[in-house]
Structure formats: structure tokens, C-alpha cells
Amino acid sequence: VKRYADNIRNTRAYEKSIMGEVACHHLAQLRAGQCLQFGIALVGPKPVRPGLFELLQSTFAPHRLDKDLCSYSQQARLDPAGICCRKDVVLVRGAQGGNALIAGQVWLHASVDGIVVTLVNLFKPLAGDGEQRWDASQQRPEVVDTKDVLAVTIHTPVEDRIVRVIVPWRFRGWAAAER
User: 162-166 and 133-135 as β-strands: parallel, antiparallel, unpaired?
Assistant: First the structure.
């Protein structure tokens, strides 16, 4: 709605004009065939730049990557639903698997030979029973499989580089982990 509300000057039929614009926008999205896609994928992928390609190549070494099969994006679709954007704070499945959580901030999403990965700056959990606070003072970037990104979270800064994360209900029993 905000996309069209500012540009409409006809205040006699303001609501009707906005609803018409929004309906046309939705119909155009449906016609493009990108609305009802599910599963993990990049949203609006772009070809990788040389520096990013070198980072991906070093991450996937010793496998040689084809630059034409690599792309990146600011956004990715999560499974089973949802969109994850750059700068979002997310919960990632721990390295051991199981019920372990790691919080971190997304730096970018990439696709390498059809595998969607996410570059996340991982936070360190702070000790304490039931604490959901994380130390974001160090840069600890790691490439994780996007299927291991469990949820985008609501968060708030508490102190200097300390972040409080609201863990979604379905992950409340999971323990904080560290990679």
C-alpha cells in the first residue's frame, strides 16, 4: 500500500485508487509466476563479483567452481516459508545438528552450483540460564547452508554490541551453541 499511497493525489476516490493499484500489482506478480514459489532459493539473483567469487572458491576448496553457475542476492526464501534479507538477525542450526541454536547477522546469500548458502556473522552466546543474549562484538563470518537458517528473529541491542534475541516459540527448548 505504501508504494502507491504517496503518489495518489485524487482524494475523492483515495481508497478506491489505492485498492485498484494494489490489485493490479498483485495480478502482475501472479502473471509473472514468481509468487507461489516455495523452497530455498535466491530472490532476484545477480552474477557474482570477482571478490565474492574468490571467497566462495576458497570456501568450497578444493572443488573448482564455475563463475557462470554462481550468483548472489540480498534476499533468500527460507523453507518452509519466509524471506531472509541482508542484515537480518537469524537463528542457525548448530554444527552438531540436533537442537542447538546460534544467532548471527546475515551478510549475503549466494548460490553455488545450485546450492544456496548464506554468509552469516555468528554471535557468541552469553552464559546464563535461559539467557537469549549474544555478543556481537567480534566478526566471525561463516558460510552456512541456507537450509540451516531456522528463523529470522526480532532482536534489540542491550548494551555495546550485546544483542537480545527473541527466540520463536518452536525453538524455546533448544540450547544456545557456539561454532
Answer: antiparallel
Alpha helix ranges (H) inside the chain: 2-5, 14-32, 50-59
- Cα 156 to Cα 134: distance, rounded to the nearest angstrom: 11
pLDDT confidence bin for 122, thresholds 50/70/90: very high
Query: Can you point out the beta strands (E) in 27-114?
Result: 41-43, 46-47, 70-73, 75-77, 83-85, 89-93, 100-112
Return the DSSP state at 84. E
Strands 162-166 and 154-159: antiparallel
Counts of helices then strands in the chain (DSSP H, E): 3, 15
- 31: amino acid identity, one letter: R
Strands 162-166 and 89-93: unpaired
Q: Is the peptide bond before 50 cis (omega within 30 degrees of 0)?
A: no
Global pTM value: 0.74
pLDDT digits (tens, 9 = 90+) for 59-106: 777 777 788 888 999 999 998 778 899 999 999 988 766 678 889 999
